[in-house]
Amino acid sequence: MSSEQFGHLVFLTQTDTTIGFVSQNADRLTHIKCRPPHKYYIKAVNSLHTLKNFTRIPTAHKKRVRRSRKTTFIMPDGHSYRLVRDPHHLLLLDRLKWAYTTSANSSGKAYEAAFAKEAADIIVTPLISQSKASSIYRLNTITLKRIR
Predict the structure, then answer these.
(1) Contacts of residue 79, Cβ cutoff 8 Å, sequence gap at least 6
(2) pTM of the entire structure?
(3) What sign does the dihedral 98-3-102-127 (CA atoms) show?
(4) How many domains does the chain have?
């Protein structure tokens, strides 16, 4: 199966932070989660090279982003990115290069394994546990603001 075909699927997998849905198709994720269509998803990327294809990191924050672990950054353009380092999650992301990622639950509700498994096209095991969500920071050219 080519990476282009993978891009339309919704994966249920252990991400670097929680059990989540991963896909390159934001519309499918929006439909599954019953989420308002105007909200952005976090874009998980497999490398700094891939990240540079999407956005420019403000100079004052380049070192912070490069050294980050389990941290999401909202760039000045309003889009959010997380550079993934987790080896298990990278097995999938190295094939896709990037993917939208979100928690495996219906919008505003708690995680339910039955819902998540039914909604996904492919389940990547093992699904270990729910852990703490990523930290989120909003970056401007100079300032940094903690969101979560």
Answers:
(1) 40, 43, 54, 55
(2) 0.88
(3) negative
(4) 1
What's the first-to-final CA gap in the chain, in angstroms? 37
Domain interval for residue 110: 3-146
pLDDT in tens, the chain (148 residues): 555 666 689 999 988 888 899 999 999 999 999 898 888 899 999 999 999 999 999 999 999 999 999 899 999 989 999 999 988 889 999 999 999 999 888 877 888 888 989 999 999 888 877 667 789 999 998 888 999 8
Rounded alpha-carbon distances, angstroms, from residue 76 to 43, 44, 100: 15, 17, 18
